[in-house]
Design goal:
The protein contains five helices and no strands. With about 110 residues, the protein is mainly alpha-helical. The longest helix has 23 residues. The structure holds zinc ion.
Length: about 110
Amino acid sequence: MLNEQELKRRDKVLMSMMQIYCRAHHDTRGQLCSSCARLREYAGQKMASCTLLENSSFCSSCMVHCYAPHEREQIWTVMRFSGKWMLLYHPLMAVSHLAHSMRRRKHS
Ligand SMILES: [Zn+2]
């Protein structure tokens, strides 16, 4: 299991990405619409309970194992969209996220 500090950090990244996506697609400001809030809750639960996460970032292969197909598709859509914006809004968060995604892409 992840320690609490790391879990909070990842939850913050997740929330930021969801906000960027929701704001652009559902015209919300600073908070999530009900469907995005539900997705965030789902992702948060997976994040908290997944043992694979200890060695990887929350956007990694763990999703493939833990997420239901529908939710996985939704979260990927959010991340594909928000990934590039993260560089603008949250450069520090984005660096580790992108570094991980790139490694992942090379393998697949
Ligand atoms: Zn939304």
